[in-house]
Amino acid sequence: MAAAIDEAAAAPADAAAPTEPEPAAAKEEPEEEVAEEEVALVEEDPREHLNVVFIGHVDAGKSTLSGNMLYLTGFVDKRTIEKYEREAKQRNRESWFLAFIMDTNEEERAKGKTVEVGRAPFETEVKRYTILDAPGHKSYVPHMISGAAQADVGILVISARRGEFETGFERGGQTREHAMLCKTLGVRFLLVVINKMDDPTVQWKKERYDECVSKLKPFLKTCGFIIRKEVKFMPISGLVGSNVLNQVDAAVCPWWQACVDAGDHNTTDATLIGCLDKLTIEGRSAESPVRIPVLDRFYERGTMVMGKVESGRIAKGMKLTIMPTKQEVKVEQVYVNETTPVFSAKPGENVSFKVSGAAIEEICKGFVLCSAPVCRAVNKFTCQLALVELLEHRPIFTSGYTCMLHAHTCETEVTCSKLLSQVNAKVKPKPGAPPRPICFAKQGAVVIAQLSVPETICLEVFEDMNQLGRFTLRDEGKSIAIGKIISLDE
């Protein structure tokens, strides 16, 4: 529709002034250059940019917490909040008003369930952030994956309310699957917030907080998180805002300051935003080749592409290659936060950019825009695979097993071509000894396998670039395995 409107608007202008296109262009160019010079100064912002994804079970309070963070940091005004309060009251859902900041469509507001990944920027004096509010319902896990694939930090929202924590954490609850997917998709830090501490069934009791933490720690360790370095815990109230920007009143929660002073559960900051400000993401290199997995594309007076800069630096005028089609394009303009034009964007930035040389139908989600040397495109690869939770009616993983693969922003069908060996962490293989071949594997096993996909996809070896070298296998709406790529086969 937007493309049709743009073309219709452009046609009369071209017809009306066929002999004067160059003067018109000459008048516009200086204005564009001035605007870009001003924005280029902003682009050199020394503050680090972090993508923060909110994950957790349905009704844990993810949208309310993310909406309140925007309000408390001044990125949503009070008038807007009052409008949402009136709307929520009309729906007899007074406590949902903060969630309306992130849940913008009618379906989400009517049901109180996030469907699409909500996006919103905010900043502090120390850092700039993009909030990714992921859906919690199991029907929308693919949407959650696309959000978590963009994230550097995960905020796992746990409801402390009696019954809600147990429902989310038991098998079938999304707390487990979301935490595992976060680690698989490359989230560097996980902040576990025990929400709804002000609920009448909890009343900021330390016993309930400790109970939730003690049950979560062993599970997060099995997901691959290093608890002491990568996971932090804190109690909050997303609705009231306690421990979000400002610390909870000592009269309400007298034990929290003592926990912070002692560094209990790896937390030395009393508030969530204070904790985020002190996180540092290492390993980002602006000097590496450009890698931008395509999250979406659309038409707006040209072909626009959305994605996260995983490595390298993208700049106006740069020539990139679309993989796996090997088509070359030129970057005409780069935007951050969807609307702010900038001269260049560094690793970690969520960008949208206009390209010339390719039509919208020639770029698909899961493609990768690269600079030389380009990303490999393969239809067969060797990987290390951890079988986390197989289906009850398909308890054996063997050659011929078919399911869905999620790698960065790519989603495709995949088949196990061959099981090569099983990894036993307790037994060290003898030097030079050939791996012991296997015919099948059960839940809990770690195997070396060769997987194949029907069409070529863009991947990297995990050791070279972990963001494009890890993946998840899902079957019938359930995550069954996580893996990392060892080698890419011709």
Automatic annotation (TrEMBL):
Bias (Low complexity) ranges: 1-24
Annotated spans, Disordered: 1-34
Family: Belongs to the TRAFAC class translation factor GTPase superfamily. Classic translation factor GTPase family. EF-Tu/EF-1A subfamily.
Species this protein is from: Aureococcus anophagefferens
Protein name (Swiss-Prot/TrEMBL): Tr-type G domain-containing protein
Predominant subcellular localization, coarse grouping: cytoplasm
Localization of this protein: Cytoplasm; Plastid, Chloroplast
Taxonomy, superkingdom: Eukaryota
A molecular-function term among this protein's GO annotations: GTPase activity
